[in-house]
């Protein structure tokens, strides 16, 4: 006997991973009357709640508030002190529940979802999962309907010589930091790297350097985005090195247990092959994500461990033609964003329970990836949805892009001096609909959902003309964009 319990009878759906995507598919299936078991080896709430979105935005918020106050004449004079870093970190700890999930578990139990603490692994038999329990035992679960993979991703550590040995920070160690390093090198200028670089600079870091291999920060967005964020970073003392890659890293060992962690040296190679050395207290790696699938038993279903799980538009894993295995959230690689994982979870749940609309047709039975909203919470903030101009042209669409200054409307002016940013629409000429939108500036996140609705709803420009923005709000940039187009 291997000590395996087989008390999984009566389970309709098994979900592996209790992050936002896993929680949502479990809760939606349970609400439809199905018996659901969710397996989690760490904390209910997942990466976003404890080591991602919530703590990172909490670290960013104090500096954001101070910067906003300093842009307002009269209020600026009241800003006389420095940030209370201890209070910031205490607030971070509060919002992540001191890294306990006591406050998150009731959301599952109130919906009748059974929480199984441990690591789940596919066995190769249909809808069967072996759980290696946290207490050392094992349990065999068999679902009558479906198994859903929602195990997310982890930080990628590039194969740079000496990097792994230097024990770099990743998103977890950075968002959970107990101190602000005096000097910091950030490898990666995407959303995570950019946000944390600015957070630590504003929290009191004396030297912050961002190393990005692409020609600009936030390289997947419109070109002006990276240029504007870089200008803002450099204005507040953050060094930005683009077209630059780390080629070697070295951190000498500490000779005594009580010795301060030695500084790390980072060799980087920039344009024209110029090599320089950066020295810092800490190095943060923000160079992408790796799917957490290496120990899920994917090989038992003929899929490759360690990779993203390829799915169809119903979120079913293509490796299982019988259709009982699903993957939602980061693990399927479609859009590594919490809100998109939750959206995919709702789609998958509706397919699993067989939900139909009032006309008897399958309801919301496929995942639409045309309009993926995304926000980078830097200052200036970057909010975008849909296609960039380049991506639209590469997709063969005949498009026209129009742009106006975000700070050019009265709503931006009353928020303070020095309003910056750009608002841009990508318009498909044949149908006269918006297929992409980007906004940079202060609090542009609040402009994003209107753009998402316009794209998803395929609202014509002629109809958008009648969506009147209130005065004085920053939303008046919509009026400026339509007028720039010629309406």
Short note summarizing the structure:
With 487 residues, this protein is of the alpha/beta class.
Written description of the protein model:
The longest helix is centred in the N-terminal third of the chain and has 18 residues, at 53-70. The chain has 3 domains: 4-45 and 101-154 and 290-353, FAD/NAD(P)-binding domain (3-Layer(bba) Sandwich), CATH 3.50.50; 164-286, FAD/NAD(P)-binding domain (3-Layer(bba) Sandwich); 380-485, Enolase-like, domain 1. A hairpin with a 5-residue loop joins strand 12 and strand 13. It has 487 residues and is α/β, with parallel strands linked by helices. Helix 1 packs parallel to helix 9, helix 3 (53-70) runs antiparallel to helix 4 and helix 3 (53-70) crosses helix 7. It has 14 helices and 21 strands. The protein has helices at 20-31, 46-51, 53-70, 85-95, 105-109, 171-175, 191-202, 223-235, 338-353, 389-394, 410-413, 445-456, 461-464, 477-485; strands at 4-5, 11-16, 36-40, 114-122, 128-133, 138-149, 153-155, 183-187, 207-211, 238-241, 245-250, 264-269, 275-280, 282-285, 289-291, 325-327, 374-376, 381-386, 399-405, 422-428, 433-441. Residues 12-340 form the FAD/NAD(P)-binding domain. Keywords: FAD, Flavoprotein, NAD. Its cofactor is FAD. Pfam families: Pyr_redox_2, Pyr_redox_dim. This is NAD(P)/FAD-dependent oxidoreductase.
């Amino acid at each position: 006997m291997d000590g395996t319990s087989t008390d999984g009878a009566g389970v309709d759906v098994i979900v592996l991973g209790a992050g936002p995507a896993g929680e949502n598919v479990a809760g939606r299936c349970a609400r439809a009357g199905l018996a659901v078991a969710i397996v989690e080896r760490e904390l209910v709430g997942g990466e976003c709640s404890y080591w991602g979105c919530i703590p990172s935005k909490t670290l960013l918020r104090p500096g954001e508030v101070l910067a906003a106050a300093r842009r307002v004449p009269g209020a600026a004079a009241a800003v006389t002190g420095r940030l209370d870093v201890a209070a910031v970190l205490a607030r971070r700890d509060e919002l992540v529940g001191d890294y306990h999930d006591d406050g998150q578990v009731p959301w599952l139990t109130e919906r009748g979802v059974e929480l199984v603490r441990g690591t789940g692994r596919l066995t190769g038999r249909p809808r069967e999962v072996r759980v290696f329990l946290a207490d050392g035992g094992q349990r065999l679960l068999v679902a009558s309907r479906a198994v859903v993979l929602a195990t997310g991703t982890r930080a990628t550590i590039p194969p740079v010589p000496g990097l792994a040995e230097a024990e770099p920070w990743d998103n977890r160690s950075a968002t959970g930091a107990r101190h602000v390093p005096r000097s910091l090198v950030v490898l990666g200028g995407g959303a995570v790297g950019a946000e944390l670089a600015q957070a630590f600079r504003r929290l009191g870091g004396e030297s912050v350097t961002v190393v990005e291999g692409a020609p600009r920060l936030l390289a997947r967005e419109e070109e002006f985005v990276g240029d504007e964020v870089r200008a803002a970073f450099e204005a507040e003392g953050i060094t930005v090195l683009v077209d630059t890659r780390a080629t070697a890293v070295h951190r000498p060992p500490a000779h005594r247990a009580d010795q301060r962690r030695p500084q790390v040296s980072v060799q980087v190679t920039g344009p024209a092959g110029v090599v320089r050395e950066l020295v810092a207290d800490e190095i943060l790696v923000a160079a992408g994500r790796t799917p957490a699938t290496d120990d899920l038993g994917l090989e038992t279903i003929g899929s490759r461990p360690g990779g993203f799980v390829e799915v169809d538009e119903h979120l079913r894993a293509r490796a299982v033609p019988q259709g009982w295995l699903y993957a939602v959230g980061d693990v399927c690689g479609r859009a590594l964003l919490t809100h998109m994982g939750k959206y995919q979870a709702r789609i998958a749940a509706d397919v699993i329970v067989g939900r139909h609309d009032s006309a008897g047709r399958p309801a919301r039975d496929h995942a639409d990836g045309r309009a993926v909203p995304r926000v980078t919470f830097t200052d200036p903030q970057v909010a975008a949805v849909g296609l960039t101009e380049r991506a639209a042209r590469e997709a063969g669409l005949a498009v026209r892009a129009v742009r106006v200054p975000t700070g050019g409307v009265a709503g931006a002016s009353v928020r303070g001096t020095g309003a910056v940013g750009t608002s841009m629409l990508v318009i498909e000429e044949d149908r006269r609909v918006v297929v992409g939108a980007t906004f940079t500036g202060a609090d542009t996140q609040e402009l994003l959902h209107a753009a998402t609705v316009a794209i998803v709803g395929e609202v014509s420009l002629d109809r958008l003309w009648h969506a009147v923005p209130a005065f004085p709000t920053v939303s008046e940039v919509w009026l400026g964009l339509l007028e720039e187009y010629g309406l």
